[in-house]
Amino acid sequence: MSDPRHPRASGRATLSDVARHARVSAITVSRALNTPDKVSSELRERIEIAVRELGYVPDRSARALASRQSFTVAVLVPSLSNAVFVDTLRGISERLDPFGYQLLIGDTGYSAEVEERRLRAYLEHRPDGVLLTGQAQTEGARALLAHAGVPVVRMMDLSADGLCVGFSQIKAGYALTRHLLERGHRRIAYVAAQLDERVRLRGEGYRCAVREVGGDDPRLEVAVPDPSSVHLGGELLGRLLQQAPDCDAVFCCNDDLAWGAIFECQRRGIDVPGRLAIAGFNDLEMSACINPALTTIATPRHQIGVAAADLLLAAIAGEPPADGQRDLGFSLVVRQST
Amino acid sequence: MSDPRHPRASGRATLSDVARHARVSAITVSRALNTPDKVSSELRERIEIAVRELGYVPDRSARALASRQSFTVAVLVPSLSNAVFVDTLRGISERLDPFGYQLLIGDTGYSAEVEERRLRAYLEHRPDGVLLTGQAQTEGARALLAHAGVPVVRMMDLSADGLCVGFSQIKAGYALTRHLLERGHRRIAYVAAQLDERVRLRGEGYRCAVREVGGDDPRLEVAVPDPSSVHLGGELLGRLLQQAPDCDAVFCCNDDLAWGAIFECQRRGIDVPGRLAIAGFNDLEMSACINPALTTIATPRHQIGVAAADLLLAAIAGEPPADGQRDLGFSLVVRQST
DNA sequence: CTGTTAGCGCCTTCAG
DNA sequence: CTGAAGGCGCTAACAG
């Protein structure tokens, strides 16, 4: 009833369908596809034709199962709405795509629980490597990774152990605050939302710097756990101005908040930077376009993705990590808002 | 040499490792995990303990191979840098996560070739469904989908055949232009970048509307294929003002460009909307925050994700699509920029 | 260069 | 409710 030259009605063409069609053995088809130079050009051609005629698409599950390599890398970022992580993803993808690795991209919504859940889900794919943003947050997540035994590279911050690529969030926060101090500001505020590890560390850097000049004052800090947004930036500026009307500079934990703060100043007729200097963090594309252009910390997020991918590739290949902790630095971009 | 109660050194714990550990058969472990109510509570408990002790994580490849269901859905969007698609992804994820589906998320960079390549790669995972943005661009992509025989839902625009969820880009472009006409503008420009299907359709709508009042003029259109960005918005405004100094309103094909145009007007001292009205498309978060607040078309992108997921779920379940073409509409949001 | 054999880890029968 | 046998599609290891 069934024609052996054609794929079974029950599903798609398989390797043996192709093999039968090309009158070779299955393994030869496998080789023609994966290591073409190990197959004579004659058979290769016949096989290529069969593949095309049957519309054969290999099955990764079967391949992964048999070869014990999934050619898959799991990547977890806090949010896809944040351009910072999307730039990082692009760097990863640029580096991993050419090697045939496929990315399992997931966002955690800045939640440790979601992170663990997604991690578990992705580990079921037996990824060849895992890329994480920051530390694995929960005990469970760390246990999962330990059991899995896959190479892991952590991105964005620096840490004491394991492989990681990033820069010192503390130093960056410190550097930006120093810049404001050098501009002569003494009542410098820190406005933050989405209080993740990195935002906290930037706050640390800020506090370090203001303390050095005795300029620390709890009223100068506005921090809320809400998701960051431009709108929130305006709102938090209002709150800040209420609790510390004499502040003369604002360090926003990210650019989005800073934009919102600038817009709010425009509406209130507050001169930036004359009456109030405003600085952000990350140097997203728009920060150079807004009026006044935003002073901010440029972060090497794309490069972090590239380097993390390279590090992971090396780890997958079993190469000893020459420098497991890669500090890619940051740079202060001074524009008109300060 | 090897203790049968422990996973082999060569790899991670398998179902039979767990089975041995709990002194039951492998299939019972499988059932305890997938259909717990088909296993006595006693065995279930023993199995749960074994799972925990061994740190067992199921292997999706093996499961997919044996069950012929991958519980995976492939999603292709043009870009992750565009908040529009990220909002759509969120809608999809919200709907599909609870069912245990895992998303294979990929971006095409607005390229038809990349789309086909990614599609092929994702089909190797034997996804239970595919979510596409717009039409499958290439002949090859369409052939792949036809061969694969998986349910496909297309998002964002409307189309004649197959399952799709979106709204009429033409009508939206028309509606926005009508609004500008009703405001009394007669020299309305269309500024566009990233010329994908949707941007072109919006342009169609624009042209329809201006033609009705005899206001069409090629000098009023500035369109470049470059990736859209805020910076580009400013640049294109400059170009427009040069080739049509008398234009009195600008319809930007997306909000990013409109922001850039507004910033450029601020720098040039052009009054918005007094001298020049500016409108965008999509209603991203920032559009309500900028000064002047941006008039734009609010698009139901999150809802599109939700509805697309629902449609796909139904199609996977083999349910006949009651309404295969779902028009979710759009709405005009009039703010201060017009 | 090509083929055979066996098995990856799990689930679908079909039995009890 | 539990288990035994077989196979999903592919590739490793060995043969020739």
Automatic annotation (TrEMBL), chains A, B:
Keywords for the protein's UniProt record, in alphabetical order: DNA-binding, Transcription, Transcription regulation
SUPFAM superfamilies hit by this protein: lambda repressor-like DNA-binding domains, Periplasmic binding protein-like I
Pfam families assigned: LacI, Peripla_BP_3
GO MF term (any one): transcription cis-regulatory region binding
Coiled-coil region: none
Highest rank taxon of the organism: Bacteria
HTH lacI-type domain: residues covered: 13-67
SMART domains to which the protein is assigned, alphabetical: HTH_LACI
Official protein name in the record: LacI family transcriptional regulator
Protein species of origin: Plasticicumulans lactativorans
